[in-house]
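Quick one, tokens below:
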């Protein structure tokens, strides 16, 4: 799941949106699984913090890889 983020100069995530999401190999292909992974990636991105810097907001992406458990 790729999440696009905008980070404030204080190092906090101001905005997070899912850019793309694909199901891991071995998953059952369910849309509910995909929705759950997207939700967890967004939650994790929104809780992320970064080192503060003087310049204004910065944009970037975080990539989350979920490995299917058997």
């Amino acid at each position: 799941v790729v999440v696009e983020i905008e980070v404030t100069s204080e190092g906090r995530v101001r905005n997070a949106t899912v850019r793309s999401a694909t199901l891991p190999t071995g998953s059952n292909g369910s849309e509910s699984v995909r929705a759950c992974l997207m939700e967890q990636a967004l939650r994790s991105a929104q809780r992320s913090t970064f080192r503060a810097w003087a310049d204004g907001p910065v944009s970037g992406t975080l990539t989350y890889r979920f490995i299917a458990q058997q």
